[in-house]
Amino acid sequence: MSSISRIDIHDFLGNHVLQRALLTSSDALYCSKFLQVLIEFTELDKIEIYDILFSFMRGLLFSITEDEGNDLGLFLFDSWSIISGWRFSGETSNIDESKYQKWHSELACSCVFALLSSEELICRVALKVLIRIVSVFPTNGHTGEAILKKIEPIQKEDGNNKALANSYYGQLLKARNDGVWKEGNLKSTEERVKEEKAKQEERLEKLRQQDEALAKEVANYDRQFGENDRDRTSRRDGRDRRSNNVEARAKFVPPEEKLLTKKTDDLDDRWQRRGPTGDKRSFTPPVSLGEDSTRNKRPRGSSSDRG
Questions:
Q1: 134-152: b or e for each residue (b if 16 or more CB lie within 10 Å)?
Q2: Nearest to residue 112, comparing CAs of 79, 140, 147, 138?
Q3: 3, 203, 242, 274: least CB-packed within 10 angstroms?
Q4: Could you check whether the bond before residue 138 is cis, i.e. omega within 30 degrees of 0?
Q5: Alpha-carbon gap, residue 287 to 295, rounded angstroms
Q6: Distance CA 9, CA 52 (A)
């Protein structure tokens, strides 16, 4: 394996590993793990392999599709997690700091150049890759600040990449606060905490002012319209009370109606007894059909017939 030349490694990575990694997400993870196994169990120099690998990045970002950008980002995420572990594990024999900084700069420059491209697709591919690796890259504060500045113009544009740029910007700030940026001349954590605290206090002050303004507006409304509302309420209550009184009066039975009811009852009773009425008027009970026919028959030889 020691006889393998740099050209052979270049052809192997470009024609086999990277082409397979861009097919699907599973292939991307498989190729990353395959390189790690290859480095661990062979005599291949890992420094030389990753030197050649990161030299492909700029050309790849300018020539792949959006879906392939997702796969490339997943491949880089797994690979850079291993490289970052080598760098910050504390074992000096794993990797040289200068080599780490070289790979870091090559990957960062490739992504920044793609972000500055006038082609929306190239910029979108770079954003997809950066979003995939945001939890492990960048680890240098200067690089992180430079990427933040390059993202701001994309956020202000009314293009298809605006939402993606906003998403990456927020994730990158969160990664910075979580301690992903491990080196570089950064602002101290205490200064960032003070800045965040000052911003939070400013937001709370704005909310307090808004609450006070709302309270004043409500008080003015009560002064202007509160009396009218109370008058309308009292009038409505008065109408309700009057309606209740009317209903109560409707249930009252006057004495005249009681007398009329009693008089009607007396007439019914006297009708049944076939007696005189209370007003002493003559009362003739109805005659049945048999009685009427008998009464109308006159005896023969009466005085009227004789005449």
A1: bebbbbbbebbbebeebbe
A2: 147
A3: 3
A4: yes
A5: 10
A6: 8
Q: Which two tokens mark 234?
A: 């009292």
Helix ranges restricted to H, the chain? 6-12, 18-21, 25-41, 46-55, 57-61, 66-88, 97-115, 120-132, 141-156, 162-177, 189-250, 255-273, 289-296, 303-306
C-alpha R_g of the chain: 52
Print pLDDT tens along the chain (307 aa): 446 788 888 999 999 999 999 999 999 999 999 999 998 888 888 889 999 999 999 999 999 999 999 999 999 999 999 999 888 876 545 677 888 999 999 999 999 999 999 999 999 999 999 999 999 999 998 899 999 999 999 999 888 899 999 999 999 999 988 888 888 755 555 676 677 788 888 889 999 999 999 988 888 887 777 655 555 666 666 666 655 555 555 555 555 555 555 555 555 565 555 555 544 455 555 555 554 445 555 555 544 444 4
Token code pair at residue 296: 């109308």
User: How far does CA 167 lie from the centroid of its chain?
Assistant: 16
pTM: 0.62
Tokens in use for 29?
A: 């993870």
